[in-house]
Amino acid sequence: MDLDTARQELEEFIPHVKNISDSSIRKMAGRDLMRFKEFKKQGMAIRFGRFTQKENKQIRKNVEEFLALTGIDSAEKLLFTSRYPSYKDTIHRLKTEHHFCEKISEGIPRPWRLIYYRARKIFDPNNYKGRYTKEEKEQLKKYQALHGNDWKKISELMSRSNLSVAMKFSEIKSAINYGPWTEEETQKLMSAVKDVLRRKLTVENASSLSSLEQPDSDLWIDREQLQQALPWTEIEAKVGSRYWRQCKQKWNSVLTRKLTRGQKLYRGTNGLKTKITLIKRLYQTKAEDASEVNWDELSNAIGDVPRAYVQAKFYRLKVSFVPLWKRRTFSEIIDYLYEKTLPDLEEKL
Known about the structure:
Blueprint: H1 3-11, H2 22-31, H3 33-41, H4 53-70, H5 75-79, H6 88-97, H7 100-104, H8 112-123, H9 134-147, H10 151-158, H11 162-171, H12 183-204, H13 209-212, H14 223-226, H15 232-239, H16 244-259, H17 268-285, H18 295-302, H19 307-321, H20 330-348
Helix pairs in contact: 1-2, 4-8, 9-10, 10-11, 12-15, 15-16, 17-20, 18-19
């Protein structure tokens, strides 16, 4: 089926289909269109939004039947195969042979990908661990300071689900000043970062301390040391008026300016080139989730900038150019940027 026909036929079932990328349309035409037509014959409309108890029960039934069919011994192995690298090839083969996509979505009038994500939430053993202790909350803040929004990594470190750690982190954000940084706040931040770096260097390499004392130097210390993870919750406490994420973002903007000697990487012609390169590189990764992207490698492709700089620019891209981005998966956002936004940016360049 050609793309225009697929889009036209899917429009009957999905009102916002015009905002879905070509790549996602192709996937839905293969995975969902025949299912949608069958549901229509049965008088069932395609559903979105909150899953019902009946749908959750059907998902459980579908997963359990697939496990019985294939001999895979747990839902966690089936749905979180990356946690079991030694079984990866076998499980992927069994999924293909026994039509995993069709089996897991049987009897549920929703797009396949939404059903898959719901199944992962239901069967993730790390998703039901009770209330967070005070120690866990502090631990979560520290891990987020180290790893950013890499919820997959943080979930593994805390033995909680991706969704659980992401939701809890958003809950524990403190009330902060959202206005422009004052000169006094910036000086407090710079002083706090210097204190931390000085303490680290005292332990690691005392000979590098001299460069930290040069007020007019563009680079205080080696770039590798400048870009290392810092204890942001400690720096937050020293700044006082800002949440630690703001401190990290402000430091990254200072660091980027230092590393690029003040070049405006994200403005004018350079800005267009940076956006184009970022979209192309993200598309080439074929990642299904942001946690699968090597952001350090991407930052090297963009320029000599911190990974947080690149992550922030990707966020601005999706917010600025992708309609209904909150309702799309990571891969759908990348597909849209590549197919819809990229040609316009290249023409503008």
